[in-house]
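Dear H.,

Thanks for agreeing to be a second pair of eyes. The structure we're designing against is below in token form, covering all 411 positions.
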């Protein structure tokens, strides 16, 4: 079984061109004494929109690693996969994010549910648990999550058939659902995964608050901290109680730009001695746009054209991301207005700096989901990435290290 470092960060980029720039950020972190596994994320949805395949993702990651002579741990993620699409990822991935959110609430058989509840009834009497777990919690959680757990086990077995050496990492994702799981529910879910023999190393629960794409956390930060701490304690306990990997840790999805919760995550994990996984992949594409705009000339013109087309196609682009964006068309500048902007003005609107009065989080979210526009530009866009590589790579590295890795790991 592949064991991740204590800390791991999901990165990657839509077009597979910023691997070296991202690795520089991790090298800067390592120079300060912190190692984190870099995990190249790319979902099946993103592959379909851009026209790439899992093999392309592996190739981009490996070439970046070779280009800089990177010696630390890295993985390639099959992000948000299930039985319907896992096969195409198995030869190329070594980190599998099994998404079972769609199966939550579907009932397992009465016999399966009854057997599970009977087998784990003693959880209600376990005084070592960091949270009170009642018989009712066990019964309700089994009814709500057991089918999803069994689905995760089915996908895991399929992966293991294709990778019998077991040299891969399993994450189970339950974050894209309506309601958060309580710490007691999380305990039962982890018991269920252990019972189904899924060696989960990272678990992505649904947290309260909004994790919108590309912008800060929306919600009660202290409430999140309490929830994260309770869940982290459950994960630490569950690893020992159920024989799950000792490296088991929480995973925070849509974690890029959630600056207000980073101090709490760092403080809690330091106090508990545990690690965490955080996904930040989507922010890199926005840094490409910032780098293009900052370079001026043809780069700025291209960045403006991406905005104009994304604005005109908002409903189409927003469809797959409706649950994770909050965009008001009334707060968006018109394409005509953006076309009049200088490079500095475009960058100020897009770069995630809440202290800057020109920052526009609606514009940032729109462009976050607008990578399909760039994909349709084909070679024109990819060629621009080469032409303006210096500006783009500088912004990618700075964003990942200064705004994400430093607040999460360094004092």
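And this is the sequence the design step returned. I haven't edited it by hand at all.
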């Amino acid at each position: 079984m592949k064991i991740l470092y204590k800390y791991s960060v999901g990165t990657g980029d839509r077009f597979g061109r910023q691997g070296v720039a991202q690795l520089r950020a991790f090298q800067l972190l390592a120079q300060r004494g912190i190692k984190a596994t870099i995990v190249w994320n790319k979902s099946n949805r993103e592959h379909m929109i851009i026209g790439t395949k899992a093999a392309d993702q592996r190739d981009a990651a490996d070439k970046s690693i070779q280009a800089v002579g990177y010696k630390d741990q890295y993985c390639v993620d099959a992000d948000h996969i299930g039985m319907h699409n896992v096969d195409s990822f198995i030869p190329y991935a070594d980190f599998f994010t099994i998404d079972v959110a769609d199966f939550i609430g579907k009932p397992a058989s009465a016999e399966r549910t009854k057997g599970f509840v009977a087998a784990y009834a003693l959880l209600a009497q376990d005084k070592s648990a960091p949270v009170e777990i009642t018989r009712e919690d066990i019964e309700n959680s089994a009814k709500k999550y057991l089918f999803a757990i069994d689905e995760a086990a089915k996908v895991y077995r399929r992966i293991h058939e294709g990778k019998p050496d077991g040299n891969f990492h399993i994450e189970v994702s339950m974050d894209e659902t309506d309601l958060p799981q309580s710490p007691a529910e999380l305990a039962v879910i982890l018991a269920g995964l252990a019972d189904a023999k899924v060696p989960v190393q990272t678990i992505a629960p649904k947290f309260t608050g909004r994790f919108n794409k590309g912008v800060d956390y929306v919600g009660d930060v202290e409430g999140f901290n309490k929830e994260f701490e309770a869940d982290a304690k459950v994960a630490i306990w569950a690893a020992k109680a159920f024989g799950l990997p000792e490296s088991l840790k929480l995973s925070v999805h849509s974690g890029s730009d959630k600056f207000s919760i980073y101090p709490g995550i760092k403080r809690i994990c330091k106090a508990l001695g545990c690690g965490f996984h955080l996904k930040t992949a989507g922010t890199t594409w926005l840094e490409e746009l910032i780098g293009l705009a900052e370079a001026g000339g043809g780069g700025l013109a291209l960045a403006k054209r991406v905005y104009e087309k994304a604005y005109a196609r908002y409903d189409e682009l927003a469809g797959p991301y409706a649950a994770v964006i909050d965009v008001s068309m009334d707060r968006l500048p018109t394409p005509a207005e953006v076309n009049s902007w200088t490079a500095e003005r475009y960058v100020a609107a897009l770069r995630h700096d809440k202290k800057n009065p020109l920052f526009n989080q609606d514009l940032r979210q729109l462009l976050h989901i607008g990578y399909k526009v760039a994909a349709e530009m084909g070679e024109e866009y990819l060629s621009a990435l080469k032409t303006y590589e210096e500006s783009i790579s500088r912004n990618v590295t700075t964003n990942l290290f200064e705004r994400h890795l430093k607040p999460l790991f360094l004092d």
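Two observations from my side: The first strand starts at residue 7 and ends at 11. The chain has two domains: 7-281, 294-399.

Warmly,
E.
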